[in-house]
Amino acid sequence: MKPILFKIPKSSKASILIQVDEERHFYDKLHYHPEFQITLVEKGDGLFFGGVGMGKFAPGDIFFVGQSTPHLLKSSKRYYQENSSGVKSISVFFNYNSFGDSFFELPEMRQLKKLLEITSRVIKVSEGEQLRVGRLIQRMLDLKEHDRIIGLMEILRDIANSEVSYINSEVVTYQLKEQGIKRLDSVLNYTFTHYSETIHIDQIADLANLSRSQFSRYFKERTGKSYMAFLNEVRIENACSMLLDSQSTIEAISYDVGFQNLSNFNRQFKKIKNLTPSAFRNINQL
Hints:
Layout: E1 4-5, E2 16-23, E3 31-32, E4 36-43, E5 46-50, E6 53-57, E7 62-65, E8 71-75, E9 87-94, H1 110-117, E10 123-125, H2 127-139, H3 145-160, E11 164-166, H4 181-194, H5 201-207, H6 212-223, H7 227-245, H8 250-256, H9 262-273, H10 277-284
Parallel strand pairs: 1-3
Antiparallel strand pairs: 2-9, 4-7, 4-9, 5-6, 5-8, 7-10, 10-11
Helix pairs in contact: 2-3, 5-6
């Protein structure tokens, strides 16, 4: 798979880049870059895709993305409307050798080096740690020169000592290739946009300009799952948001996210989330 190579603006006067993104919706093209990226979502919600996995994002969430790990943030549908309330994030970018080739090889950096080695899994900071780490990220906007380096070390230290979850179940090690970025990006974005509609494999294969068998093999090799399994995950993640944000019945939600019958929705929900839709709603609304 070959996502877009995204070039982070660099300065000869700084080894750490702080970037604030404030738009109608987040940049939704699959891309990667050689820098590590730590992103705090301040405003907006939707689905985060990184490596070969995905999960929901909401205000306060913090993601740590590894070097050259493909990722995108797909904002929820309402952010694509003219009356969008807008999104905002703060991101910190740095290279492994930003502070010299041997910096993270120092004995004192052992814990942080280990942290960096697993960032291709895409780390998500736990809710209990988000406030503290988020404040450290926000503070980076006001820091200059050596204070910014100290600030980054504090962020890395706190993440290393925090409870975290991962977008990917294991370290992503696939090789990026020049061919295929537009193909995979078009499939992902079509799915994120049209998940509530009836989608057939032949239809997606045509979109990817592949035969049905070629597409099935192509998608499985690059994501580790079948397309229908991926589609069900997208639908279930959106159903989770609706279960918490609306008073709609579970049956109505199942149809709204694209399932044709309630029993299949319940079965897929429990398979992916390890609990029923009603249990998920009850637990998260306590």
